[in-house]
Design a protein that fits this description.
Length: about 250
């Protein structure tokens, strides 16, 4: 790994890149994951690289949904595995979720490498690949019969589109984490967290540890008040505001 000085103004961003490159070298992250991350970085930039109010609201609703769920599952791909393994474990423990490997660029060897990698962080990983989500053509149809197959709420960070639709057709509530509020996934999910996963997950762990003692009624009222279309509209407006502000600053300097 290239040594990045902590004093570097883009330390966090550069460290994410290093983790992903390392992930590719280990055969955990797909090469395509680097491209996907680049798209995420661009959106993060124009969101101001911080957790905005609309993301906090979605994170709270997501935690409420996971705490209320009978069988919540966190789906992990090659980017998530290297960016936030510790936080995946903490969130799974706090909300009582299972963790399942579900990847687009699939091979049994890669699944095995990811499983071993995640187990180093104490995660009990589901990766039996013994069930199929009907209606989906990509390798993401291959799931675990104890996990996504029977889940009622699925957290799908850094998703690639058509799976969200199929998960919903199978009656599951989908929580997406995607920095791109315009993506098909963002628009199809029940709850869309427009935030970087490296900020979203630590926030959700903190919320879950507080909210896990709350009553069912209190958690349900969070979901009743939640409107994903409003959240997405606020995310797009947030980008617009940020760009307007920068544009004004440039004009007046
Ligand atoms: O590990 P695999 O084989 O399952 O492959 C994983 C990738 C990410 C390659 C695959 O799911 C893919 O191609 O995804 P997409 O279609 O590029 O979508 C990824 C979305 O995640 C994009 O909309 C990005 O903006 C967003 N994104 C990327 N990095 C982050 C992010 N969102 C939140 N936090 C990030 N760090």
């Amino acid at each position: 790994m290239t040594e990045i000085p902590r004093s570097h103004p883009r330390y966090l961003s550069l460290m994410m890149r290093e983790k992903l490159v390392e992930g590719v070298k280990l055969g955990v992250t797909a090469m395509q994951g680097l491209i996907a991350h680049g798209r995420g970085e661009a959106f993060d930039y124009i969101l101001g690289e911080r957790t905005r109010d609309f993301a906090l609201k979605a994170e709270r609703a997501a935690v409420a949904a996971m705490l209320l769920a009978k069988n919540p599952v966190i789906s992990v791909n090659g980017n998530v595995a290297v960016l936030v393994p510790k936080e995946v474990k903490e969130l799974a423990d706090a909300v009582g979720a299972k963790v399942e490997i579900n990847i687009f660029h699939h091979s049994p060897e890669r699944v095995e490498r990811m499983k071993k990698y995640l187990e180093q962080f104490g995660i009990e990983v589901l990766a039996a690949c013994d069930a199929v989500l009907e209606g989906l053509d990509s390798a993401r149809r291959i799931v675990d019969s104890r996990g996504i197959y029977i889940a009622d709420v699925v957290l799908v960070p850094l998703e690639d589109g058509d799976r969200c639709e199929i998960l919903k057709k199978h009656g599951k509530k989908v929580v997406a984490i995607d920095l791109n509020p315009l993506s098909r996934t963002a628009r199809m999910a029940d709850i869309t967290i427009v935030d970087n996963i490296t900020r979203a997950l630590p926030n959700m762990v903190e919320m879950a540890n507080e909210m896990k003692s709350w009553s069912k009624d209190r958690l349900e009222s969070i979901l009743e008040q939640y409107d994903n279309r409003q959240i997405l509209a606020q995310a797009v407006a947030g980008i617009k505001e940020y760009l307007d502000r920068v544009s004004k600053e440039l004009k007046s300097s």
